Amino acid sequence: MTESAAIHIGFDDLVALLKTIFVRNGVSEPNAQILAENCAGCERDGSLSHGIFRMPGYVSSLKSGWVDGKAVPEVEDVAPAFLRVDAKGGFTQPAFFAARSHLIEKVKANGVAVLAIRRSHHFSALWPDVEPFADEGLVALSVVNSMACVVPHGGHKAVFGTNPIAFASPRAGSAPFVFDQASSAIAHGDVQIAARAGHDLKPGMGVDRNGEPTTDPKAILDGGALLPFGGHKGNSIALMIEILSAALTGGYFSGEFDWSGHKGAQTPFTGQFFVVIDPERGGNHAFADRVAQICDLVLDAGQDRLPGERRHNTRKAALANGIPLSPQNHDMLMALATP
Ligand SMILES: NC(=O)C1=CN([C@@H]2O[C@H](COP(=O)(O)OP(=O)(O)OC[C@H]3O[C@@H](n4cnc5c(N)ncnc54)[C@H](OP(=O)(O)O)[C@@H]3O)[C@@H](O)[C@H]2O)C=CC1
Ligand SMILES: O=C([O-])C1=[NH+]CCC1
């Protein structure tokens, strides 16, 4: 998209537009507000594989009856440092928000707490779930599993989802240190974007329906599969994420849920795991300074930039000038919002 062709929209206006679309498609008012802020935040930050690109998928899943936009999550306090949430077949973010303040109370009381969400649909980036904890001085790690489209290292059948992991830590004098990455060589959303744009992928990311290596995103989407990043090492991380997000929470593994009866379903029905830590309990009252120190060492040693930096720069520009939407994307949103 050329900058001159872009339509710039303010964050609040984008949230209002997305909320209208969610409500029109059967999402309750409070759930729609949470989802709209999340999705608009991804677009604002340049997380384009999980911004407005996902709106047709959200709508399609809602229309198929696969996800309950009105679900009211149930929070269970199961131990001094352990909360469980049954999302009741709804989206994960409202389930997370239902437990969030209670989770922080537990972290403050115990130094650490775990949140296990099950029966939930996560269709977004993970950084919005962890970054706000770091803004409040806490360290947070979260993982979520998705839909089976990743073949285990050396294997022949997709078992894992693209299973992202996100981590956030306060960092003195700067925005928090945050990374958010799929455990597959590439996120499924980026494969869809490449297929749509007619771009090839880098070698080593996926296989076609015969298990042969391919750089063609369409061959991956049409019966092929993705590979874990970094061979057996990414494989173990993907497996750990299945264990934490599904076995531990009581959610489904990425290959376990059956959405075949819901034509148009796109949102994975799995689970999400969080661990949140109060770094003050480490007894090192200079925690955020120490984080800044190690980040500076990495930059001084030649790394171009830290994870999260591109996002924060994109956010800054979007807040100053508006969020750039291509005319096609703008039209797509208007069509979804119009009765
Ligand atoms: N809900 C779900 O089930 C799933 C969601 N996803 C989401 O998809 C998104 C994309 O994942 P993925 O494709 O793996 O992300 P990327 O590979 O684009 O980025 C991963 C991380 O690395 C950072 N990074 C990228 N390039 C550099 C660099 N040159 N130097 C330093 N840091 C860098 C990014 O920071 P920055 O953002 O600043 O560029 C980001 O924190 C994620 O938000 C993830 O949560 C993925 C799979 C499933
Ligand atoms: O990009 C991705 O891999 C996914 N995003 C939501 C579900 C899977």
From TrEMBL:
Its EC number is 1.5.1.21. GO terms for molecular function: delta1-piperideine-2-carboxylate reductase activity; pyrroline-2-carboxylate reductase activity. It catalyses: L-proline + NADP(+) = 1-pyrroline-2-carboxylate + NADPH + H(+); L-pipecolate + NADP(+) = Delta(1)-piperideine-2-carboxylate + NADPH + H(+). InterPro entries: Mal/L-sulf/L-lact_DH-like_ah (IPR043144), Mal/L-sulf/L-lact_DH-like_NADP (IPR043143), Mal/L-sulfo/L-lacto_DH-like_sf (IPR036111), Malate/L-lactate_DH-like (IPR003767). It comes from the Bacteria. It holds the Pfam family Ldh_2. Gene3D superfamilies: 1.10.1530.10, Hypothetical oxidoreductase yiak, domain 2. Transmembrane segments: none annotated. It is an enzyme of class 1 (oxidoreductase). Keywords: Oxidoreductase. One of its GO terms (biological process) is proline metabolic process. PANTHER family: MALATE DEHYDROGENASE, OXIDOREDUCTASE-RELATED. Belongs to the LDH2/MDH2 oxidoreductase family. This is Delta(1)-pyrroline-2-carboxylate/Delta(1)-piperideine-2-carboxylate reductase. The lineage of its organism: Bacteria, Pseudomonadati, Pseudomonadota, Alphaproteobacteria, Hyphomicrobiales.
